[in-house]
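Protocol check, entry for the methods section draft. Step 1: assemble the input record (protein sequence plus ligand SMILES). Step 2: submit for complex structure prediction. Step 3: store the structure tokens unaltered in the notebook. Ligand used here: NAP. Step 1 record:
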Amino acid sequence: MPQTVFITGTSTGIGAAAVRLFAQHGWQVAATMRNPADAKFDDLPNVRVYALDVTDAAAAPRAIQQAHADFGSLDVLINNAGYGLVGPFESATDAQIQQQFATNMFGVFAVTRAALPILRAQQSGVIINITSVGGRTGFPMNSLYHATKFGLDGFSESLWYELAPFGIRVKVVAPGGVATDFATRSLQMTIDPANDAEPYAAQVRSVLAAFNERGGAASSPELIAEVIFGAATDGTSQLRYIAGEDAKSLLGAKSQMSEADFMAMIQKSFGV
Ligand SMILES: NC(=O)c1ccc[n+]([C@@H]2O[C@H](COP(=O)([O-])OP(=O)(O)OC[C@H]3O[C@@H](n4cnc5c(N)ncnc54)[C@H](OP(=O)(O)O)[C@@H]3O)[C@@H](O)[C@H]2O)c1
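Step 3, stored output:
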């Protein structure tokens, strides 16, 4: 019987690439997204598309149970849906903060909780949470995004212990920069960086320019999907997978430098 993977946020980017890769490997794929009309998987017969906005906690059990009933199995859950809220913390509205956490963290909690009764009953399964290099190190002007990704990283590490006795393996895939809609369509800002009346505008512009420069080093979503597929299928209990050469090199530097030196380097490279 083919294995089944359930993936959130599959309209574009890493999620869409993961759908294709698992399907090409013969997996049954529950591809979930906010708007199923966005799906581009008609050429993949073993993919079924389900509506799921991860901020709708009631929708998560419905989607998980429907996919489980349709495919007859659930082996891997990939919590991928997420976006970046960028800009000064001071300017973020309550609604922006709530939406960032509702999507990047509470959405993961809801979908994971919906899957757990199935995985626990079968005494097997892999849960892969897509965090970020920004779940292991901080960049300027990304405080709220980092709060969610550092949070997910810690959540996953603790859950690893809790679920191991039930045969469920928890994993984190932490990409560096990836060429997706993340930095364009999906990005939200807490200020308009063009507005010079904003006290943080110059700092934001400098950070965005540094990110743009780094864009050339971005990985493809297909490469990140390969890391995710490896994590799902390698049979190990490895917790963290750092995905992308930029992420490996940055976290490697962080592990070898003093905190003061590393932070001075980040300040310099972002011009803040
Ligand atoms: N690209 C990077 O540089 C990078 C680096 C590190 C980590 N990541 C992480 O990788 C994951 C995927 O991002 P990506 O790079 O593939 O960007 P992307 O192309 O913008 O994809 C993000 C996906 O998340 C979905 N999404 C957003 N809010 C949602 C919600 N409430 N419910 C369900 N789906 C929702 C989007 O759906 P819609 O089409 O409906 O908006 C889209 O399918 C994210 O968790 C992101 O934090 C990305």
